[in-house]
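Recap quiz, item 2
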Amino acid sequence: MAAKAFDEMNSGTTGSVRAPYRGVADWLARTSPERVAATRHEVDLFYRRHGITFGAYGAADGHEATIPFDIIPRVIAWDEWEYLHKGLVQRVKALNAFLVDAYGPREICRAGVIPETQILMNAEFVAMAQDLALPGGVHAHIAGIDLVRVGEKDFYVLEDNVRTPSGVSYVLENREVMMRLAPELFSAMQVLPVADYSEELLATLRSVSFSDDVEPTVVLLTPGHFNSAYFEHAFLADEMGIDLCEGSDLFVDEGRVYMRTPRGPQRVDVIYRRVDDAFLDPLAMRPDSFLGVAGLLGALRAGRVNIVNALGNGVADDKSTYTYVPEMIRFYLGEEPILQNVPTWRCDRPDEFKYVLEHLAELVVKEVHGSGGKGMLVGPTSSKAEIETFAAFIRARPDNYIAQPTLALSTCPTFAGQGVAPRHVDLRPFVLSGRKVTIIPGGLTRVALKEGSLVVNSSQGGGTKDTWVLAP
Amino acid sequence: MLSSTAKNLYWMGRYLQRAKSTARLIEATQRMALQSRGEEAAGVAAIFGMEDEFRQTQQQGGRLASLIDFLVLDESNPSSIVSSITAARSNAREERNNITVDVWESLNGLWLDLSSRLRGDRVLLDRGALIESVKKQAVMIFGAAQVTLLRDEAYNFLQLGAFLERGDNTARILDVKFHLLRPDGNPHTDKPDYFAWSEVLACIGAVRTYRRIYRSALDPVKVAELMMLRRDVPRSVHHCLWMVDLSMRELADTYGTKGEADRLAGELHARMRYARVDQIFDIGLAKFLGGVRDDIATLSDEIGRQFLLD
């Protein structure tokens, strides 16, 4: 597996160093292991001091872990980025067009491209989100599109995240760390900056207010400090200079949303929520939610407050809808998809179901609504018993699973144990859609730190790298 | 209290603040240099008003790394961080009996830390860690002064020195950076360079403060307003001159006399308090800031004359 993978540094023609990585290769050759070890210790201190921690689910003792950061950057050449950028803009435009359609006329179903059951029977479908004219026709304001690379020119979209994608704070903090720890490497290469993300995010949020105010009030709604991504919520609110609210800080009166302040109620126009759909409004969704705001959906439907990302976006990013995205691009934009999907078998189709069960040892099987690298089977690295147990799950609920070939994700040089070794990586760029579409260069590179592992999720022992897009 | 004590505390405040401002400025400049390919070194030298000295000291001419060493480590440069902290420490040492143990120990601790870092091999010296340590420990020293010093004359001279220096630093940074970014003096532009303007704010550690106040995209006029006129921004020129005026009033109450320094401090404070940013740009930012900086220098002279510091 690992032997076949495309290495982003060393897979140049005849095994030479690829051009974008020359600066990194030189730096690695010049830098002593002691220096690197000292640097890694500094990184951990930096993250702890800044409180950049991540409470992985299951850590009941409240232990604050840091996501391991690898100091060797992942480098993307300008022409590669240009290509990805175009493909990402196209894909997110189509996803937004689909969401408008799915919660509106559903023309794509009438045209026979996507069966209506795919939308209406979807567990993530939110009936209350139908027939809303959202500002700018945008539902997926912040999209994290997970990409993998398997060859010099071969990138695939692994999945779309258009609910509440997280991780962008690591993009910004990883850059700070790199500038602090490896200035010599930085100055040897021309790296495009990423620090304007928060400015672009605030502009995006403001541009989708229902009101005509020049400076609409935006707040960030967090489930609270027990949430594993709380650091990111506080970080983004601070960077944008907006208030970080919990449900109890907001209330609805006469169809408008207000926050409680010492000066009295202050009207809120846009809510960047990091609370899941089901918990947003106890009157409309789960009645036992303490994280939401009673009456919020009424205010949304009355066009008094916009909620970002929109409700019910899960119909566009689950792993079974994923298979239709190329068709969406053709249907809504009349274009051929620039970025390719990974070939996917849907277990709810009898012939594909049969194929999957016969080839489990070679495939990766995922739950349709799964996330965080849980509830999946990586055939080639699983035992016979594990495969058989999983096969039983699939037989019980075929519609809950999809399968994909085990991709040889590209590798990047990474510090492992005593030295540098190739480890598998993916990439999550963050696409902002308001009145215009903006993408900061690069995104979050996640790296599987275990040798041979293909699972990059932070909850499964993955780490991150700084991602460098080189200037043209 | 002796005039010599007043003088030592005044200069201790100035030198310590100078080291702190320089540390912050270098950090911001380095970040900027890593993110863009701009010729940052010349701009930094200009802020310190030492383009010529810099060129003379450095044969290779204008590389950022050598400029940083000149500003941080060079003992022949009286404004370098090392020289400033050595001077502040020597002021404090002479006034051991007039400052608290907390202030002395934190300042002496910074000096010892610096000395031990400088004893090693200069090639291996981690400049970033040194600058960070100076920044952090300077905050602790000023914090110790805030919580432990008796509010007497000595305290007011320390405050005078620190805030005059800080106000002058902010005015100088804004003056030089604005000129570099908008040579024609016109602050209005369609698409301000986000990275350049955020770096200007970073020089006084106010990027997030800006967002908190304005909640909008970076705009050169607002950046200038924040750095000059916002009384609630602790490094703005207005805030610093307000604090200077306050200390002058306290001293006038203590001594029962007033002089030219009191008049000038009051006038500078009033100028910052009642100025409007649009009018400043009508006059010309460089001209306005030049006037303020000249008067800060005159005020420093007058303080020396009035309180027999010289």
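Residues 78-102 of chain A form the longest helix (25 residues).
Chain A touches chain B at residues 179-180, 183, 186-187, 190-191, 193, 195-196, 198-199, 202-203, 215, 238-242 (CB under 8 Å).
End of item.
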